[in-house]
Amino acid sequence: MTPSTLKRRLATPTAMADSPRPAPRVERLKPFLAMEIMERAFELEASGSRVIHLEIGEPDFPPPGAAVAACEQALRDGETHYTDSRGLLALREAIARDYDRRFAVAVDPARILVSEGTSPAMLMVFSLLIRPGDEVVLATPHYPCYPNFIRYCGGEPVFVPTRPEDGFALDPEAVAAALTPRTRAIVVASPANPTGAIQSRETLEALAGLGPTLVSDEIYDGLVYDGLGTTSASQIADEAFVLDGFSKRYAMTGFRLGWVLAPEWSLRSLQTLHQNFFISANRFVQHAGVAALEAGAAEAEQMRAACEKRRDRLVVGLRDLGFGIPHSPQGAFYLLADARRFGRDSRALASALLEGAHVGTTPGVDFGAAGEGMLRFCYAVSESALEEALVRLEEILPGLERRAAQQGDP
Ligand SMILES: Cc1ncc(COP(=O)(O)O)c(C=O)c1O
């Protein structure tokens, strides 16, 4: 991919003028810009450049040693066949015990369906809930896949803006005002991607009380700073769908393992969806999941503590460079910073940083119109990589700022 191809890809939604064309439900989807940046970064690396990847949401920590060992052992033991479509009972029981440990909530393992990452679980939940024309309310800036999944399932996302000045807190009254007779669900993520915001227990309770089904994406739970805790929808509403997985807090992105904790009424349908779409999650990977839950806490805590330090460093470093960060993010491993003094078009800016400084960042507009003028930085990378990224940015930003000023941009 040349720089101009990247520019074109960042600039246009799916470009497929010639027939045969994909079905409309696919044409409606937008490319994931973080992936587009990463794929161009891989090309730069293939031609000898050293890119610092702050664009992609992936911890550069190893997975818990016990998870790797359990996976290897399971392979040696011949644990290579399908499992029950809902997942191994041992894993579902371990997940239930983990809810007890994390949130002091008793969860019936029968309400857990194990999937190949949180993403398939999300697709199944939206497939289950959304009828053509249904609306799903969510905060913005938002994880880019939510509206794509919602639209794919025939629904319409309805965005409730959150603001950097408020730490991207979601206002339940604004959510209530966005409800219509067609609202089927409310999606909440805490801690959130890309904002790192944590929503309070009161907010989650208020959202759960509004009527539509609550879908709570808790994949970043555990990656929380400043001594804060989190609330799980599992503590509040038996009728909520809770999405979670091993990718983030156990640094197990490539294992592809997640789950949904679902209400009683939906279990049989989710099982049917899973049987048909995916059959079962990888058997040996499910053993790794049990081991991560039972023996991975210390390593997960090390990663959390390291991320907290890196967040602190990046907040200071980016503020010094002139980025706007009114509140430190309190969870996940992202920082969404106001970059307008360097250019209002976040695609163009991310592209300039990648091509000119070999620093990968995600254009804020990937997270909705509310994210335009911002860049997302992932700080789950080594301290030395962060330091080098800051040095490289310091070299390139003054030129971009001057250009933006000449164009009357800021
Ligand atoms: C908010 C959020 N939910 C879900 C996912 C998907 O995670 P996975 O499919 O790896 O479990 C991601 C990945 O970045 C995410 O940021």
* Shape, per Cα inertia axes: globular
Low-confidence stretches: none
Bound ligand species:
pyridoxal-5'-phosphate
Kindly state the mean pLDDT as a whole number? 94
Structural class of the secondary elements? alpha/beta
Gap from first CA to last CA: 30 Å
The count of DSSP E runs of length 2 or more, i.e. the number of strands, is 12
- At the first level of CATH, what is the class of the largest domain? Alpha Beta
The number of distinct structural domains comes to 2
Main sheet record: 7 strands, mixed
User: Which strand order do you get reading across the main beta sheet?
Assistant: 2-8-7-6-5-3-4
Return the string of H and E elements. HHHEHHEHEHEHEHEEEHHHEHEEEH
If you had to describe this structure to a student in words, what would you say it looks like?
- The protein has 14 helices and twelve strands.
- The protein is of the alpha/beta class and 410 residues long.
- Strand 5 (183-189), helix 9 (201-208) and strand 6 form a beta-alpha-beta unit.
- It has two domains: 3-57 and 299-406, Aspartate Aminotransferase, domain 1 (Alpha-Beta Complex); 65-297, Type I PLP-dependent aspartate aminotransferase-like (Major domain) (Aspartate Aminotransferase, domain 2, 3-Layer(aba) Sandwich), CATH 3.40.640.
- Helix 1 (3-11) packs antiparallel against helix 13 (346-357) and helix 12 (297-321) runs parallel beside helix 14.
- The longest helix is centred in the C-terminal third of the chain and has 25 residues, at 297-321.
- The chain has helices at 3-11, 24-27, 33-46, 65-76, 89-103, 118-129, 145-152, 172-178, 201-208, 267-277, 283-295, 297-321, 346-357, 383-406, and strands at 52-53, 112-115, 135-140, 156-161, 183-189, 213-217, 241-245, 258-261, 334-338, 359-360, 362-363, 374-378.
- The model has no long low-confidence stretch (mean pLDDT 94).
- The structure holds pyridoxal-5'-phosphate.
- The site of pyridoxal-5'-phosphate has 13 residues, from helix 6.
